[in-house]
Amino acid sequence: MSEVRDLIELMTTTSLLTAPGLVTDPARAAIVDAVLAGGHHVVYGAPGSGRSTTAVELLAALADEPGGLEEVLLLAPTRQAATRLRDAVARRLPRTMGRVVVRTPASFAFSVLRQRAALLGESPPMLLTGADQDAALAELLLGHASGEGQDPGWPDEVPAEALGLAAFRHELRDVLMRAAEAGWDGQDLVEIGERLERPAWAACGRIMQEYDDVTRLGETTPDRGTRYDVAGIVDEATLVLGAWERELPRHPRPRWRVVIHDDYQDATMATARLLEMLAGHGAQVVVLGDPDIAVQTFRGALPALLGEATQIPQPRRAGRDVLEIRTAGALGATAHLLPMVWRGDKRLRSVVVAATEGLPALGESSRRRSRAAQAEVGSSIEVAVTTSPGEEGRLVAHHLRRHRLAGGVAWRDMAVLARSSGQLAALRRGLRAAGVPVATSRDVPLAAEPAVRPLLTVLEVLVEPADEGAVAEGDAGFAGSDAGAGRKRRHAVPGTVGRDGGGAAALPARWAHAVAPASAAARPSRG
């Protein structure tokens, strides 16, 4: 699966455009010179204009400055983006770096908190994963359903049946994370929900208060450090850096000479507050992005932060009776533009222009008029409107098979992109029915992987037997077996495994698939 993901990323992302030590784009060279001269900067660029390449070239130029990269930090909004930048930096710099230069904001924040804990002699902090948060919320909601704890007061439009669903917990966790990124605590969310007559928001605020209490309770044991979730860890690091001299007067506060943030259109308000604090302590901040291509807004990204960075910082004062989301990120930065698009040709560029011209013009809008460097590279664009998902899958399969048979294009050199993961199942079925080999690349929790679910089910049943009727029978394809092999394995399971003591017949097939290899090792061979 990792090979498939790497292949798709290779097919859909831009490689390093310039040879090591050579900056061929005059606009890029001018931006690098401007940054080396000092001040904060915002770099706008359309897709394919070389924003990430500019960030890497800037890092290479800073490596030749006095002090090198010891106080230089390159941030990316996601782990995947950080990995691509890290690989590009490794190719660009002919040297070994003594520390991690490319990070996500959450990774950087965690390193700051870990350093602080070490200096104070405290246990290392812990980062709560999405699975940890989901488990904690599941326990809270289950406790409320059984009458334990304070009733959060869900309104009638939130049925009791929905409270036990994983999809509901996912949406609830999203609300809590967005509130934390806005700087609100549980009480703030309750107050604003009551003021705006949104009882569901108020209920989420009460859940948030209880969740925070449970999280802090888990920190009381001596061997466990402070626990942070991804939404709050960046703000926590900002507070720690701001209070460093007061809490650790005998240890110098970590300082950064230059901080670069690529794909800043996908940054959150918490990241903007972090950059603002670093700039206030002497760091030079450079951000690069394009508001038109933001893809992380569902996780709290604010594309308008690019334009905010060019604003002059102003003192903020919230009214006593008004709860506000504290904006941040005003740096008084100088705006630059990468005017040339190096990826694709004029035909592809015209499609991008048509797709973005109706979007709100956030920040520097002249990026939409960027020209393609190449007039024609043989690209072709077709638009088709189908009447059903099935017809859409057949049409996609037809094009893929045509390129395979008539054009000689290998299957591994083709990619199909879907707007959302909900489209993948139907599209995958349609392609396979047409004889097109399919391998999907989708990040899913480990517990949701098809090969892991049966193992978890076995463990759950061994610890606390469940109703056999609640579990789907069979699991064709598990460990390369079919239904017939599943029946043989089920009969091979010792009778003591059955929940009712009646032998293997009491064990559903999907459980037998998973436990049979372990039990078969102790059984003599019939041969």
Shape: globular
Radius of gyration over C-alpha positions, nearest whole angstrom = 27 Å
The low-confidence parts are 10-23, 318-324, 467-480, 493-527
Number of separate structural domains: 4
The DSSP helix count reads 19
Measured as a percent range, the helix fraction is 40-55%
Structural category = alpha/beta
State the distance separating the first and last CA atoms. Answer: 37 Å
What's the CATH architecture name of the largest domain? 3-Layer(aba) Sandwich
The CATH topology of the largest domain: Rossmann fold
Overall mean pLDDT: 79
Instruction: Trace the largest sheet across and list its strands.
Output: 3-2-6-7-1-8
Number of strands: 10
Q: Summarize the main sheet.
A: 6 strands, parallel
State the order of secondary-structure elements, H for helix, E for strand. HHEHEHEHEHHHHEHHEHEHEEHEHHHHH
What amount of the residues lies in strands?
5-15%
- Corresponding CATH superfamily of the largest domain: P-loop containing nucleotide triphosphate hydrolases
Structure characterization notes:
The chain has 527 residues and is α/β, with parallel strands linked by helices. The chain has four domains: 25-116 and 234-314 and 325-339 and 362-372, P-loop containing nucleotide triphosphate hydrolases (Rossmann fold); 128-224; 389-433, no CATH class; 447-520, no CATH class. The chain has 19 helices and ten strands. Helix 14 links the parallel strand 9 and strand 10 (371-372).
